[in-house]
Amino acid sequence: MLAAVVTGLAVLVPNADAQVGGGSWIADSPSFTTQEKGCGDVSGLTFKLTCSTASGEQRAERRYATYTGGTHQFEGSFKITSMTGSRISLKQTFRDGSSAGPYFLLAVEKGGRMYAVEGGATLGSGATVGTSVRVNTINQVGSSHKVYLNGSLKQTISSPGGSYYDKFGSYRTSSGAGPITVTWSGIKFWHQ
Predict the structure, then answer these.
(1) I want to staple 140 with a disulfide (CB 3.0 to 4.6 A). Which of 37, 47, 71, 132 is the partner?
(2) Whole-angstrom Cα distance, residue 128 to residue 130?
(3) Which domain of life is it from (predicted)?
(4) 59 near 35, Cβ under 8 Å?
Protein backbone atom coordinates (compact mmCIF):
# COMPACT_ATOMS: atom_id res chain seq x y z
CA MET A 1 0.00 0.00 0.00
CA LEU A 2 2.78 2.42 0.92
CA ALA A 3 4.62 1.70 -2.32
CA ALA A 4 1.50 2.60 -4.32
CA VAL A 5 1.12 5.89 -2.44
CA VAL A 6 4.79 6.81 -2.95
CA THR A 7 4.58 5.95 -6.65
CA GLY A 8 1.44 8.05 -6.99
CA LEU A 9 3.16 11.02 -5.36
CA ALA A 10 6.14 10.69 -7.65
CA VAL A 11 3.85 10.95 -10.67
CA LEU A 12 2.23 14.12 -9.33
CA VAL A 13 5.52 15.95 -8.70
CA PRO A 14 6.49 17.94 -11.81
CA ASN A 15 10.05 18.06 -13.08
CA ALA A 16 11.23 21.55 -12.11
CA ASP A 17 14.44 21.47 -14.14
CA ALA A 18 14.23 22.17 -17.87
CA GLN A 19 17.98 22.24 -18.45
CA VAL A 20 19.67 20.30 -21.23
CA GLY A 21 23.03 18.58 -21.31
CA GLY A 22 22.48 15.73 -18.86
CA GLY A 23 24.09 15.18 -15.48
CA SER A 24 23.32 16.77 -12.12
CA TRP A 25 22.84 20.53 -11.94
CA ILE A 26 22.67 22.95 -9.00
CA ALA A 27 20.45 26.04 -9.43
CA ASP A 28 22.17 29.46 -9.31
CA SER A 29 20.88 33.01 -8.83
CA PRO A 30 23.72 35.25 -10.04
CA SER A 31 23.42 39.00 -9.54
CA PHE A 32 23.07 41.26 -12.57
CA THR A 33 23.29 44.86 -13.69
CA THR A 34 21.15 46.53 -16.34
CA GLN A 35 22.93 48.19 -19.27
CA GLU A 36 21.30 50.87 -21.43
CA LYS A 37 23.31 52.78 -24.03
CA GLY A 38 22.38 54.81 -27.07
CA CYS A 39 18.72 54.17 -27.89
CA GLY A 40 18.58 51.08 -25.66
CA ASP A 41 15.71 50.80 -23.18
CA VAL A 42 15.12 48.11 -20.54
CA SER A 43 11.79 47.63 -18.76
CA GLY A 44 11.75 44.43 -16.68
CA LEU A 45 12.45 41.62 -19.17
CA THR A 46 11.60 43.73 -22.27
CA PHE A 47 14.59 45.07 -24.19
CA LYS A 48 14.25 47.68 -26.92
CA LEU A 49 16.47 49.41 -29.43
CA THR A 50 14.25 52.30 -30.48
CA CYS A 51 16.37 53.76 -33.31
CA SER A 52 17.65 52.66 -36.71
CA THR A 53 21.13 54.06 -36.06
CA ALA A 54 23.79 51.88 -37.71
CA SER A 55 26.68 53.35 -35.71
CA GLY A 56 27.62 53.82 -32.09
CA GLU A 57 26.73 51.63 -29.15
CA GLN A 58 23.05 50.66 -29.03
CA ARG A 59 22.46 48.34 -26.08
CA ALA A 60 19.64 47.17 -23.77
CA GLU A 61 20.85 44.19 -21.72
CA ARG A 62 21.28 42.37 -18.44
CA ARG A 63 24.88 41.55 -17.54
CA TYR A 64 25.29 38.76 -14.99
CA ALA A 65 28.08 38.14 -12.46
CA THR A 66 31.45 36.80 -13.61
CA TYR A 67 32.34 33.15 -12.98
CA THR A 68 35.69 31.36 -13.20
CA GLY A 69 36.07 27.63 -13.88
CA GLY A 70 33.44 24.92 -13.66
CA THR A 71 30.45 24.24 -15.91
CA HIS A 72 27.70 26.86 -16.14
CA GLN A 73 24.33 26.73 -17.90
CA PHE A 74 22.03 29.57 -18.93
CA GLU A 75 18.43 29.08 -20.05
CA GLY A 76 15.93 31.63 -21.28
CA SER A 77 13.29 32.12 -23.95
CA PHE A 78 12.98 35.17 -26.16
CA LYS A 79 10.07 36.44 -28.21
CA ILE A 80 10.56 39.28 -30.69
CA THR A 81 7.45 41.47 -30.54
CA SER A 82 8.56 43.92 -33.24
CA MET A 83 11.58 44.16 -35.51
CA THR A 84 12.27 46.35 -38.52
CA GLY A 85 16.03 46.23 -37.99
CA SER A 86 18.39 43.30 -38.47
CA ARG A 87 21.54 41.66 -37.12
CA ILE A 88 20.80 42.19 -33.43
CA SER A 89 22.59 40.13 -30.76
CA LEU A 90 20.19 38.62 -28.21
CA LYS A 91 22.38 36.32 -26.04
CA GLN A 92 26.08 36.66 -25.29
CA THR A 93 28.78 34.77 -23.42
CA PHE A 94 31.63 37.21 -22.75
CA ARG A 95 35.16 36.65 -21.52
CA ASP A 96 36.24 38.73 -18.53
CA GLY A 97 39.53 39.57 -16.82
CA SER A 98 42.73 39.85 -18.86
CA SER A 99 41.02 38.25 -21.91
CA ALA A 100 37.89 40.42 -21.71
CA GLY A 101 35.75 40.73 -24.83
CA PRO A 102 33.11 39.03 -26.97
CA TYR A 103 33.37 35.25 -27.13
CA PHE A 104 29.95 33.98 -28.26
CA LEU A 105 27.11 36.16 -29.57
CA LEU A 106 23.78 34.73 -30.78
CA ALA A 107 22.20 37.21 -33.19
CA VAL A 108 19.07 37.34 -35.32
CA GLU A 109 18.50 38.74 -38.79
CA LYS A 110 15.25 40.14 -40.12
CA GLY A 111 13.51 37.07 -41.51
CA GLY A 112 14.37 34.89 -38.50
CA ARG A 113 17.84 33.48 -39.17
CA MET A 114 19.79 32.94 -35.92
CA TYR A 115 23.56 32.92 -36.23
CA ALA A 116 26.83 33.07 -34.30
CA VAL A 117 28.36 36.53 -34.83
CA GLU A 118 31.91 35.15 -34.48
CA GLY A 119 32.33 33.13 -37.68
CA GLY A 120 28.80 33.71 -39.00
CA ALA A 121 27.56 30.09 -38.69
CA THR A 122 23.80 29.67 -39.06
CA LEU A 123 22.41 28.10 -35.87
CA GLY A 124 18.72 28.07 -36.69
CA SER A 125 15.73 29.79 -38.28
CA GLY A 126 12.24 30.77 -37.25
CA ALA A 127 13.05 33.62 -34.84
CA THR A 128 10.25 35.67 -36.36
CA VAL A 129 7.97 38.21 -34.69
CA GLY A 130 5.70 36.49 -32.16
CA THR A 131 7.59 33.17 -32.05
CA SER A 132 9.20 32.01 -28.79
CA VAL A 133 12.71 30.50 -28.95
CA ARG A 134 14.39 28.79 -25.98
CA VAL A 135 18.15 29.29 -25.69
CA ASN A 136 20.50 27.23 -23.53
CA THR A 137 24.24 27.75 -23.36
CA ILE A 138 26.55 25.41 -21.44
CA ASN A 139 30.06 26.69 -20.85
CA GLN A 140 32.47 24.07 -19.50
CA VAL A 141 35.37 26.43 -18.85
CA GLY A 142 38.60 25.09 -20.34
CA SER A 143 36.74 22.56 -22.51
CA SER A 144 33.65 23.49 -24.57
CA HIS A 145 30.80 25.96 -25.03
CA LYS A 146 27.54 24.48 -26.34
CA VAL A 147 24.49 26.27 -27.75
CA TYR A 148 21.02 24.71 -27.79
CA LEU A 149 17.97 26.19 -29.51
CA ASN A 150 14.59 24.77 -28.45
CA GLY A 151 16.44 21.84 -26.83
CA SER A 152 18.53 20.87 -29.89
CA LEU A 153 22.32 21.17 -29.86
CA LYS A 154 23.32 23.65 -32.60
CA GLN A 155 26.98 24.49 -31.93
CA THR A 156 29.96 23.28 -29.92
CA ILE A 157 33.12 25.41 -29.80
CA SER A 158 36.28 25.33 -27.70
CA SER A 159 36.14 27.21 -24.38
CA PRO A 160 39.51 28.53 -23.17
CA GLY A 161 40.20 28.70 -19.44
CA GLY A 162 39.50 31.96 -17.63
CA SER A 163 36.55 34.06 -16.51
CA TYR A 164 33.19 34.54 -18.26
CA TYR A 165 29.78 36.13 -17.83
CA ASP A 166 26.35 35.87 -19.48
CA LYS A 167 24.34 38.68 -21.05
CA PHE A 168 20.98 38.80 -22.79
CA GLY A 169 18.68 41.49 -24.19
CA SER A 170 19.27 43.33 -27.46
CA TYR A 171 22.54 44.73 -28.79
CA ARG A 172 23.31 46.20 -32.22
CA THR A 173 26.09 44.21 -33.88
CA SER A 174 28.72 46.07 -35.92
CA SER A 175 26.74 45.32 -39.11
CA GLY A 176 23.27 45.72 -37.60
CA ALA A 177 20.64 48.31 -36.75
CA GLY A 178 17.35 48.48 -34.84
CA PRO A 179 14.59 48.97 -34.09
CA ILE A 180 13.72 45.81 -32.20
CA THR A 181 11.64 44.92 -29.15
CA VAL A 182 12.29 41.54 -27.55
CA THR A 183 10.90 40.05 -24.35
CA TRP A 184 12.76 37.35 -22.42
CA SER A 185 11.20 34.86 -19.98
CA GLY A 186 12.04 31.71 -18.00
CA ILE A 187 15.54 32.88 -17.07
CA LYS A 188 17.45 30.16 -15.17
CA PHE A 189 21.05 29.43 -14.29
CA TRP A 190 22.77 26.26 -13.05
CA HIS A 191 26.28 25.01 -12.40
CA GLN A 192 27.95 21.59 -11.99
Answers:
(1) 71
(2) 6
(3) Bacteria
(4) yes
Q: How far apart are the first and last CA of the chain?
A: 37
* Residues β-bridged to residue 41: 48
Range of the domain at 175: 25-191
Eight-state DSSP code of residue 99: G
Please name the helix (run of DSSP H) or strand (run of DSSP E) that holds residue 2, with its range, or none. Answer: helix 2-12
Torsion angle, CA of 100/101/106/110, rounded to 10 degrees?
160
Give the C-alpha distances (Å, rounded to integers) separating 49 from 80, 82, 123, 133, 146. Answer: 12, 10, 23, 19, 27
Tens digit of each residue's pLDDT (9 = 90 or more) over 111-160: 999 999 999 999 999 999 999 999 999 999 999 999 999 999 999 999 99
Number of domains in the chain: 1
Q: Is residue 66 part of a domain?
A: yes
Residue 106 in any domain: the answer is yes
- Asked whether residue 82 is domain-assigned, the answer is yes
- Express each pLDDT in 63-90 by its tens digit: 999 999 999 999 999 999 999 999 999 9
Look at residue 12 and tell me if it is in a domain: no
